[in-house]
Amino acid sequence: MNFKKTILTNGVRIVTAPLPGNPTATVLVTVGTGSFYEAPEQGGISHFLEHACFKGTSKRPSAKHITTELDTIGAIYNAFTSKDITGYWSKADAKHFGRIADIVADIFKNSTFPEKEIEKEKGVVIGEIDMYADDPQEKIGEALLKHMYKGQPGEREVLGTKETVRAITRDALVAYRRSQYTGPNVVVTIAGGVPEKDMLAWAETNFADLDAAPANPEFPTKDRRQEGPETVFIDKDTDQAHVVMAWRTFDRLNPDRYAASVVKNILRGGMSSRLFIRLRDEMGSGYYVSANHSLHASFGFFAISTGTTHERVPEIVSAIIEETERLKTEPVPLHELEKVKEFIRAHRLMSLETSDDVAEYCAEQETLKKNIMSPEELDAVYAEITAEDVMRVARKMFDGAKLTAAAIGKGIDKEAVKKAIS
Description:
The longest helix is centred in the first third of the chain and has 19 residues, at 115-133. The strands form two sheets. The protein has a six-stranded mixed beta sheet with strand order 1-2-6-3-5-4, sandwiched between helices. Strands 7-11-8-10-9 form a five-stranded mixed beta sheet, with helices on both faces. It is an alpha+beta fold. It contains 16 helices and eleven strands.
């Protein structure tokens, strides 16, 4: 994959990834900010700012002007906010690169935040908060984080609370944007069938005027030391019980993150993975099972989630524990290790087929790590991972004293769950 990074004098990082012959172009502007950069009373302001930027600019005075112009050229477009990154993007036929680039830059730099639109959008975001509150999977995940990281940024929801959203003012949005959307904190990524010189010329013209001041830093999460396994339960009349098991691990720059990715895919990478076979094929316990390693600047956690009947929660928790313990005590067979490495490599390859995939791949690495590893470099790293590395990292990750098990449902045998993880 061909890409180049250019840094402007004001600190803006421009990543250009020309894809000769690709019929589309993607423009993605990311900022290193999110809920981890908010004071408690600002909860949700990063996400709300992302919404508010679409409500009109000095050049396009309403949301309808923005969306109609993009729809007229058949573009797709959106924005996103997470714990530590915010992004604005559009993708279209490469011949429309100039149009989507102008609109994305306009939204990012020139939003006017009309007071009336801000008040209306509060209803939209509060509706989003209510939507997730009605979802038991979301609810137990939120409860788990609040338990594990109480009093720390790690417990915060990206959306904020109804109270903090209602308190957001236009002045607060302008001040927050000024503090975070600064040159050194911005990455402009362009990928697709556009000459690199045109990509770079546009980015330099449109982003050289951003303030060069450093952005406000992240509020770090100080992970606490557990004395032993802990539990979180929510009694709710659901048709299915939802279980999340999370272990405290390490930050996103830890060198063991690659071996941890192999561990994750051994457990839940494809339908031949260990948890899929154990829970679905052998036990028929429920429909979904997932594993995810969340890595952030100052902490991380590995989570396994599944749904089952309320009566089977202790049994399923025990089965998950058994599978994680196996990784600590039994070397992964060579054929399985090679299968998982190929699974990771092939999925990375398939995830880079389109211009928006390539833009996201580059932007996420550059924004969060200030460095982009090519697919070839990552292939070389994974090639060196051995069964001994997998076992060592599994022992490091699946420390029972760092485990928190959470479940939501009705009539769950809580004592049996506690016994299963003890």
